[in-house]
Design goal:
The complex is a heterodimer of chains A (220) and B (100).
Chain A: H1 36-50, H2 56-68, H3 72-83, H4 85-93, H5 95-101, E1 111-115, E2 120-125, H6 134-137, H7 142-145, H8 147-155, H9 157-163, E3 173-178, E4 184-188, H10 200-204, H11 209-213
Chain B: E1 10-13, E2 32-43, H1 45-48, E3 57-66, H2 67-70, E4 81-87, E5 91-93
The chains are: A mainly alpha (220), B mainly beta (100).
């Protein structure tokens, strides 16, 4: 085996361990020091369970549910809005009510749906922390939480968009929404040309997370 | 508590630097903008952060700013905007605004 690795200098037998050929082990989860907030979170979770306020199963189920959310939820709403103008109006007016029509629960935090038009493009950021429409898009990508994105998306958003490969014409108004407080935001992108014959499911497949944060545009 | 401002009102963010937690970004303090939406009443995060969960509800708005007002060296076109959620006690009527 490993015939193609002649410069490797030695051969590995299937069960042979070469003590000189050392690969540093990946650290296990417990190998990094717990942060203050991790300790507090564990302590609060243990107390809530110990005092019978929630059960371990309820806690597990909630984490399981949050991890199960993907941008497909947001894409479902976008595709419905593209095919049903009346639904789009209701979605922009009150996303919680509109989502409930198709049996989708958006939770207690209001999510404002910001509609892109030929004249306006919307972009979402949270400069103070990393607020994100988790009930529609799931867990945010690392770049969304980075200091670099949070600082630059607000002060030089066109440069940031162009680094994402999205070049915005100068006659479009770019609106950046800073999620500073009690609202969350999702961008409703424009339906791309060439999608006239597509059904809702096919349209939803075009709507990615990045399109609903506003750093990209859907393509047919 | 009833909302003091209406959509379309010109407002300015107070230039204040209180100690402790708050959700009013530094970059908009002292800047003028326009109310574009009344969001409803919420607990004040400056009290919530210190365990005062039963404090009064406070009106909160979305305020739209011109990017060129927020960033002196903004390199995009003049029509670009930024919208921020701001609690009422951080807002005053903009100078020259027709508002009580």
């Amino acid at each position: 085996m490993h015939d193609d690795h002649h410069d490797h200098g030695h051969d590995h037998g299937l069960y042979e361990v070469d003590p000189l050929h050392y690969h540093p082990p990946q650290p296990d989860l417990e190998d990094s020091k717990l942060t203050h907030h991790q300790i507090m979170q564990m302590a609060v979770a243990e107390l809530l369970i110990e005092k019978n306020i929630i059960t371990a199963d309820e806690l597990r189920a909630q984490v399981d549910f949050m991890d199960s959310i993907t941008p497909a939820r947001g894409a479902t709403l976008v595709a419905r809005a593209w095919t049903d103008p009346a639904f789009k109006q209701r979605l922009v007016a009150d996303s919680k009510k509109a989502a409930a029509e198709i049996g989708m629960e958006l939770g207690p935090i209001p999510i404002l749906v910001m509609e892109n038009t030929p004249k306006v493009h919307n972009l979402i950021v949270c400069t103070l922390c990393s607020c994100y429409p988790k009930m529609l898009l799931g867990t945010p990508p690392d770049w969304y939480k980075s200091r670099s994105y949070r600082r630059r998306a607000i002060s030089e958003p066109r440069k940031v968009l162009s680094e994402f490969g999205t070049d915005l014409s100068d006659d479009i108004e770019l609106r950046v929404h800073d999620s500073t407080a009690d609202m969350r935001y999702m961008v409703l992108p424009m339906r791309p040309d060439g999608t006239e014959g597509m059904d809702e499911a096919a349209l939803a497949a075009l709507v990615t997370r990045d399109c609903m944060v506003g750093v990209a545009l859907p393509r047919a | 508590m009833s909302a003091r401002y209406n959509t379309g009102d010109a407002v300015r963010v107070r230039t204040a630097f209180p100690p402790g937690h708050c959700r009013t970004p530094f970059y908009c303090r002292g800047k003028s903008g326009t109310i574009v939406r009344y969001c409803g009443e919420f607990r004040n995060p400056e009290e919530l952060a210190y365990g005062a969960y039963e404090g009064p509800l406070t009106p909160m708005y979305r305020v739209r700013f011109a990017q060129t007002d927020l960033w002196p060296d903004y390199d995009g076109p003049a029509q670009d905007k930024c919208e921020i959620e701001i609690y009422e006690h951080w807002l005053v009527p903009a100078e020259g605004a027709d508002h009580a």
